[in-house]
Amino acid sequence: MRIWVMAGLCLSLPAAAQAQAQSQAQTQNLAEHRLQENWVGSDGNSRIAQISLRFDRPDGADPAMVRRLELNWSDYPYQQGNFPVPVGDAEVRATVKLTLSVDDQGVPQACTVQEPSGVAGFDDHACPHLLRYLRFYPALTDGGERTGGTLDVAVGYRSGRIMVENPAGGGPTAEVPRPVPVTPIDAASVGFGPDDGLPRNIYGISGALRVETDGSVSACTLDTPTQVDAFDLAACNRLRAIQFQPARERNGTPVATDYAFWVSRR
Fold first, then answer.
1. Taking Cα atoms as reference points, which of 39, 41, 10 lies closest to residue 23?
2. How many secondary structure helices (H) and strands (E) does the chain include?
3. How far apart are CA 36 and CA 78, in angstroms?
4. What values do phi and psi take at 159, rounded to 5?
5. Phi and psi (nearest 5°) for 123?
6. Which helix (H) or strand (E) is 240 found in, with range?
7. CA–CA distance from 124 to each of 85, 98, 120, 152 (Å)?
8. I need a surface site. Which of 96, 100, 197, 240 has the fewest CB within 10 A?
9. pLDDT, tens digit, for every residue of 51-107?
10. What is the pTM of this model?
11. 223-226: which pairs have CB atoms within 8 A and are 24 or more residues apart?
């Protein structure tokens, strides 16, 4: 990691002395910072050190699962403690890839680093940190059984200036064939209503349905479940009963594909 500070003061020094002065300035400028805590760099710009998580798992509907393991980030925030290494003005980026094993209560039990970042501070931090701070909502099978599983996780470490990153605009995308439900997928069709018994903070439900070439639904997997087992199971049972006009290629041939949905409770 190189942090060039006060370089202008070193221009008249011999090369060896300049390098030594820069090294000392770098060391003096490095400090420990708490995750998600802002500080101001030597250039007057606000900075932040934080971690991010990316879960590598299949998308779409899975015939065996009503919902997958979901991170319980609201009850178990993971931006805790200090950033693993002292940092200064320089932008820092590192990624540690690992496998996390979670039990049927949503508690991580084991963690193995698969691809280290090459920086000991990050590589030594990733697994103990996730085991300590992460908790999950258990997955739910189509048969109503709560279950755990393994997750491939990329832990991203970032320190640097606070900025808003605007994604670059892309060109037009190819049209994807999409099935059409014969009856509406709405609050009533998933079971929302005055007597649904759900907590007030449940605002909706989303997921994917696998629609076959005959318009039937073979799988329902929720991306935003209610986390109330009985309701999630019943909602998927209702949705699997809905008939679709299947997606078709340009020549009229029906194709099996996923149908993404979002239903508001209000």
1. 10
2. 4, 17
3. 10
4. -140, 135
5. -65, -35
6. helix 229-240
7. 11, 12, 6, 17
8. 197
9. 999 999 888 899 999 999 999 988 999 999 999 999 999 999 999 999 999 999 999
10. 0.76
11. 224/262, 225/66, 225/67, 225/70, 225/137, 225/140, 226/198, 226/202
